[in-house]
């Protein structure tokens, strides 16, 4: 571990820090206890994908822990760095590209048990909506801007409960692992960050992820309206009552089970 820490510290030269690209959400993690906690959430010998390795804060430790790691990186500099390392290390594969485009193919070809990453905050919402649709046997350990992490981990009735909170529960139990101040990163972001751990709950979802996504998008389109209003023309008050849901409720009051019943009711009428 100490070797990895020194290796990483030297790799992350001040040159790179100065060249951190804002457009790619580059804030490099430098809190070694956080790195340890994130990496140790993944069992030894597992297979994993890391999103956005950058100069390698997590990557060095992940490579020591897992049996195979695929990294997906958009920045040419870091992709080239890891491609060089992959030539020497058969336990490492590199995908140079945009994770939003590459993820589906990477999951099919690598069949990872785990996904890890200190996510670029500018795409973390849509990326999580994509990630949550994959049923991984291990789980996901991901760093977010604290407000996004709060949304993901929130329960029905909370002001920040929304579409993402529902979607991640299709396959996973969700828990906040740790919170970090801006100073844990270089350069420091303007916001606090938090790590979320998602592990499979093991229940078979009653509806498809795609149909749930569609229902949630429509149902949360107007948060302040009742669900009867958001689904006007699609589901009647009687249909809501027949699935045990009060049509006067607002979208943020409904738990995952209620959303899956709405999804099934919508698909029955298609
Ligand atoms: C917050 S930094 C994390 C870097 C490193 N893992 C760490 O913790 O220090 C986000 C990383 O994701 C990469 N990245 C940003 N947008 C990306 C995208 N669309 N696809 C793949 N990688 C991306 C950035 O280049 C950067 O390396």
UniProtKB/TrEMBL annotation:
Catalytic reactions on record: adenosine(1518)/adenosine(1519) in 16S rRNA + 4 S-adenosyl-L-methionine = N(6)-dimethyladenosine(1518)/N(6)-dimethyladenosine(1519) in 16S rRNA + 4 S-adenosyl-L-homocysteine + 4 H(+)
Organism from which the protein derives: Mariprofundus ferrinatatus
Broadest EC class assigned to this enzyme: transferase
Listed EC numbers: 2.1.1.182
Name of this protein: Ribosomal RNA small subunit methyltransferase A
Pfam name, any one: RrnaAD
Cellular compartment(s): Cytoplasm
GO molecular function: 16S rRNA (adenine(1518)-N(6)/adenine(1519)-N(6))-dimethyltransferase activity; RNA binding
Gene: rsmA
GO cellular component: cytosol
Assigned protein family: Belongs to the class I-like SAM-binding methyltransferase superfamily. rRNA adenine N(6)-methyltransferase family. RsmA subfamily.
Domain Ribosomal RNA adenine methylase transferase N-terminal: 34-202
Organism lineage string: Bacteria, Pseudomonadati, Pseudomonadota, Candidatius Mariprofundia, Mariprofundales
Positions bound to S-adenosyl-L-methionine: 27, 29, 52, 73, 98, 118
Keywords from the UniProt entry: Cytoplasm, Methyltransferase, RNA-binding, rRNA processing, S-adenosyl-L-methionine, Transferase
Domain of life: Bacteria
Cited function: Specifically dimethylates two adjacent adenosines (A1518 and A1519) in the loop of a conserved hairpin near the 3'-end of 16S rRNA in the 30S particle. May play a critical role in biogenesis of 30S subunits.
């Amino acid at each position: 571990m100490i070797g990895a820490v020194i290796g990483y510290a030297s790799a992350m030269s001040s040159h790179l820090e100065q060249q951190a690209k804002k457009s790619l959400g580059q804030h490099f993690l430098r809190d070694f206890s956080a790195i340890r906690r994130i990496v140790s959430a993944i069992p030894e010998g597992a297979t994993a994908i890391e999103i956005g390795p950058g100069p390698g804060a997590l990557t060095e430790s992940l490579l020591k822990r897992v049996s195979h790691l695929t990294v997906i990186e958009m920045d040419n500099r870091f992709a080239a760095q890891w491609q060089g390392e992959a030539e020497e290390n058969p336990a490492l594969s590199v995908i140079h590209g945009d994770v939003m485009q590459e993820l589906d193919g990477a999951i099919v070809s690598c069949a990872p048990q785990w996904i890890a990453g200190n996510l670029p905050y500018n795409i973390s919402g849509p990326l999580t909506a994509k990630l949550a649709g994959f049923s991984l046997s291990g789980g996901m350990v991901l760093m977010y801007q604290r407000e996004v992490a709060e949304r993901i981990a929130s329960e029905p009735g909370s002001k920040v409960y929304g579409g993402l909170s529902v979607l991640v529960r299709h396959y996973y139990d969700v828990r906040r692992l740790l919170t970090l101040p801006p100073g844990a990163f270089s350069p420091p972001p303007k916001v606090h960050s938090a790590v979320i751990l998602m592990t499979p709950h093991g229940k078979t979802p009653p509806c498809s992820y795609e149909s749930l996504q569609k229902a949630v998008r429509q149902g949360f389109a107007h948060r302040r309206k009742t669900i009867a209003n958001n689904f006007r023309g699609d589901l009647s008050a009687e249909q809501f009552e027949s699935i045990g849901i009060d049509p006067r409720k607002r979208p943020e009051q409904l738990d995952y089970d209620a959303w899956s019943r709405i999804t099934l009711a919508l698909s029955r009428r298609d």
